[in-house]
Each structure stands twice: as structure tokens, then as C-alpha cells.
């Protein structure tokens, strides 16, 4: 009987959290942070308002991250003229010379940031696994979190919907 009651309580709690999520529009505000890229240019999440932004935490040692990079580049190039932006955030443990070398040799067209103190990962909910990406809408709300591989068509549909709003 206790297990049944605990199970029902868990279902009610999950349902309540889901209802609250729906009432809030299914999104939470992106943290107010500053990104300083490899060229020393700084942009804040406030500066990015009005754009749909993918903040992607990655590492040069992450095989899934490296495998996803050509698609990340293509999506950025295909959609940037419509208000889509991408920021690649290299993890704290990634050697800066590896990140710089990768960004230069692959000619990454979007800003690449090294999270040297881990403050960006902490601000986005203590990101530890890569790749982890956050899709942020024009109002500065996180509308989707992606961990690991993701369905490209579903991702693009979400981006298109955010761009259209």
C-alpha cells in the first residue's frame, strides 16, 4: 500500500511539474552570461535577444561533438541570415590550444568560447556531458535542451518554429 501511495504521489508531483512547465510556456530564461570568443569579442545573452541561438557545449575529445560539427556549421550558415546564431562553448577541461587549432583548421564560422573557469557550464545548469546544447528563443528563453545525438529534422522544425515567432 505504501508503494502505491508513493507511486501516486510521484505521478502527481510529475504532473504538477509538467502543468507548471506548460503554464510558463515550456521555457525558462537563459542565464544572463557573457561569452568572450577566441578573438576577444564579447556578447551577452541580452545582446542576443531577437535571435534564435544555439549554445553548444562541446569538447575536442568528444567524438559525438566532432561528428556533429559539420551539421552545426551547415545549420548556422543556412539559417544565420534569418536570425539564427550559434555559440560553441568549449568545456573547461579542453586544452585551449586544441580548441583554437580545431576552430582555425575547421574554419568554424560561429563564435567559439573557451569556458576556462567552467562558469558558463555552471550557469547553464552545471553542464558536465558533451555535447549539450540549448536552443534559446528570441525572447531569451531556453526552449529545448539537447544531450548527445538528436533528431536533425525535429531540431530544424523547432528552429523554424522559433524563427517564425
Would you summarize the structure shown here?
By secondary structure, the chain is an alpha/beta fold. The protein is 41% helix and 22% strand. It has helices at residues 2-23, 63-79, 96-105, 119-123, 152-164; strands at 28-29, 34-36, 42-44, 52-58, 84-90, 112-114, 132-136, 141-147.
Average pLDDT works out at: 88
Supply Rg: 18 Å
The N- to C-terminal Cα distance equals 48 Å
Work out the helicity level: 40-55%
> Order of strands across the widest beta sheet?
1-8-7-4-5-6
Query: Which sequence of SSEs, written as H and E, runs from N to C?
Result: HEEEEHEHEHEEH
**Sheet/helix structural class:** alpha/beta
Query: With helices defined by DSSP (H or I, 4 residues minimum), what is the helix count?
Result: 5
Main β-sheet: number of strands, strand sense, barrel status?
Answer: 6 strands, mixed
Descriptive overview:
This protein has 165 residues and is α/β, with parallel strands linked by helices. Helix content is 41%, strand content 22%. Strand 7 and strand 8 form a beta hairpin.
Helix-strand blueprint:
Layout: H1 2-23, E1 28-29, E2 34-36, E3 42-44, E4 52-58, H2 63-79, E5 84-90, H3 96-105, E6 112-114, H4 119-123, E7 132-136, E8 141-147, H5 152-164
Parallel strand pairs: 4-5, 5-6
Antiparallel strand pairs: 1-8, 2-3, 4-7, 7-8
Amino acid at each position: 500500500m505504501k508503494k502505491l501511495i508513493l507511486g501516486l504521489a510521484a505521478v502527481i508531483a510529475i504532473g504538477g511539474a509538467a502543468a507548471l512547465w506548460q503554464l510558463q510556456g515550456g521555457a525558462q530564461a537563459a542565464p544572463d552570461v557573457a561569452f568572450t570568443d577566441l578573438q576577444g569579442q564579447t556578447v551577452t545573452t541580452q545582446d542576443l535577444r531577437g535571435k534564435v541561438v544555439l549554445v553548444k557545449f562541446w569538447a575536442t575529445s568528444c567524438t559525438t561533438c566532432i561528428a556533429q560539427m559539420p551539421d552545426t556549421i551547415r545549420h548556422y550558415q543556412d539559417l544565420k541570415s534569418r536570425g539564427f546564431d550559434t555559440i560553441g562553448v568549449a568545456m573547461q577541461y579542453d586544452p585551449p590550444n586544441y580548441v583554437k587549432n580545431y576552430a582555425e583548421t575547421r574554419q568554424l564560422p560561429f563564435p567559439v568560447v573557451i569556458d576556462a573557469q567552467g562558469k558558463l557550464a555552471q550557469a547553464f545548469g552545471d553542464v558536465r556531458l558533451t555535447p549539450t546544447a540549448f536552443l534559446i528563443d528570441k525572447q531569451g528563453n531556453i526552449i529545448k535542451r539537447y544531450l548527445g545525438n538528436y533528431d536533425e529534422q525535429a531540431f530544424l522544425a523547432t528552429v523554424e518554429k522559433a524563427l517564425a515567432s
